Amino acid sequence: MLFGVRRYDERFEADYLRSLETPIVITKDDDEETAAAKKAMNEVKIEINDRMRAGESLAQILDETRSELRRLAEIKRMVKSDILESAKGTVSTEEDAEDLIKAANILLENKGIAPLKDTTMLRKSLMLRSKGTKE
Question: FRET pair for 80, CA 20 to 30 Å: which of 2, 20, 28, 64?
Fold first, then answer.
């Protein structure tokens, strides 16, 4: 990596560009989740091709995507941290914990960020943290 820009060798770029040429086929055997993932990947391939035709390099696109994913992950981390901090002494039931997580997910979705997925550990942490402040 040179000055924050990752360099990709010619072979990687050629292989990657070749992979963009062929759409991922959705078959009748694909379940709904698999079909949706394949459709999303085909849309990403089109977007990358369009951006490259507009003059962006593959390295620019991948670096920007990586930075954006890191930014989104940091926002989610901050939301989880804020939930845990605000829950001290206020979460007395599983339902309270679930309501707090639902509110956080609405906030994330309003910002165009995927919601928190596996929230089991977060719910348990909320309950433990709340119990710890009552003693």
Answer: 64
